[in-house]
Amino acid sequence: MRRIFLIAYCLMSWALATQAQRPREQSRLVLPETNPYTTAADLEAGRKLYVGRCGHCHGKNGEGGRGVILNTGRLRHGDSDREIFLVIRNGIPNTEMPGTFSSPDAEVWRMVAYVKQLGRQGAAEPATGHPAAGALVYQKNGCASCHTIDGKGGLLGPDLSDIGDKRAIRHIRESIVEPNADIPLDYRTVEVISITGKSSSGIHLNEDEYSIHLRDMKGDLRSFMKSELREIKLPRESLMPDYKSLSKDELENLVGYLSSLRQKK
Amino acid sequence: MLTLLSTTTGQSPSSSGLPVTYERLLKATEEPGNWLTYSGDYRSHHYSSLKEITADNVHRLRAEWIYQMHRPKVETTPIVVDGVMYITRPPSDVIALDAETGRALWTFEYRLASSVYVCCGQVNRGLAILGSTLFLTTLDAKLLALDARTGRMLWKKELADPGLNYTATGAPLVIKDKVIAGIAGAEGGIRGFLDAYDAKTGERVWRFWTVPAPGEPGSETWGGDSWKYGGSSTWITGSYDPELNLVYWGTGNPGPDYNGDVRPGDNLYSCSLLALDADTGKLKWYFQFTPHDTHDWDATQVPVLLDSTFNGRPRKLVVVPSRNGFHYVLDRVTGEFLLAKQYVQQTWAKEIDKKGRPVLNPNQDPTYEGNDSVWPGVDGGNNWMSPSYNPNTKLLYFNAREERRRYFKTDAPEFRPGESYFGGGGGGGARFRPEESWGRLIAMTPETGEIKWEHRILAPPWAGALSTAGNLVFSATPSGNFYALDARTGKELWHFNGGDRVFASPITFLSRGKQLVTIPIGDILIAFGLD
Question: Looking at this predicted complex, what is its ipTM?
Answer without folding.
Answer: 0.86
